[in-house]
């Protein structure tokens, strides 16, 4: 099972780039972030002939997550538990049935800027809810993973210029600590389990020539439960997508599971 996470920064803006990547990479399952579309306006037609079923949790103008799958999807749920008043569309779950069943959690974690402030408080509270959900899923002992745009730079080597991010919500000590608290429940960071060292990024800003200068950050992650980590065969980043026509500011990060 090849599975990828991809923040597409607007499904309609990526109406050509996304199908082109799907044809080239042929992932079985993709979790998307920032679809920026309500469910009923999601452009299903751009996926015609590609063999994907589609589940969305959309929101007008911003946020929004989705799961595309060539494999059967079961028990689809929307929204991160723990706060019934939270209306932001940032979490979707489904069980993907391949050789084994794997629970997939697609997420778009809040940015949190400016920090300190209400948006940063929301980010940290959201991460605490995510940790609680992760603990609950771990208790089931079913293989599962949490994939998406975490808006967290876990360590300095995940940024080309770490000093530029010192005061940003993506790299503040509290953000990194919240990420580690989730990771330390027993998760494996799939990409870092396969590839170590600096120079590996999943996001380059549109401004200041960031792509040309390779001034990137790694903020798109796939965390695997112990049962899912046992299935991991490979992981990578499709960096070249950023140099394509009308690209997102993110690129796909993918894993290959024996599932």
What does this protein structure show overall?
The protein has helices at residues 17-25, 118-140, 173-183, 190-194, 226-229; strands spanning 2-7, 29-33, 53-57, 65-69, 73-78, 91-97, 101-108, 144-149, 188-189, 220-224, 232-237, 253-257. The mean pLDDT is 98. The chain is globular. Helix content is 20%, strand content 25%. Helix 2 (118-140) packs parallel to helix 3. It has a single domain (2-257), classed as Endonuclease/exonuclease/phosphatase (Deoxyribonuclease I, Chain A), CATH 3.60.10. The protein has a six-stranded mixed beta sheet with strand order 3-4-2-1-12-11. A six-stranded mixed beta sheet has the order 5-6-7-8-10-9. The termini are close together.
CATH fold-level assignment: Deoxyribonuclease I, Chain A
In CATH, the architecture is 4-Layer Sandwich
Physical arrangement of strands within the biggest beta sheet: 3-4-2-1-12-11
Largest sheet: 6 strands, mixed
Q: For the record, what CATH class applies?
A: Alpha Beta
Total beta strands: 12
Count of domains: 1
Structural class by helix and strand composition = alpha+beta
What's the multimeric state?
single chain
Helix percent reads 10-25%
Radius of gyration: 17 Å
The CA-CA distance between the termini, in Å, is 5 Å
Task: Summarize the helix and strand pattern as letters.
Answer: EHEEEEEEHEHEHEHEE
Shape: globular
What keywords describe this structure?
259 residues; alpha+beta; Deoxyribonuclease I, Chain A; 6-stranded mixed β-sheet; 5 helices; 20% helix; globular
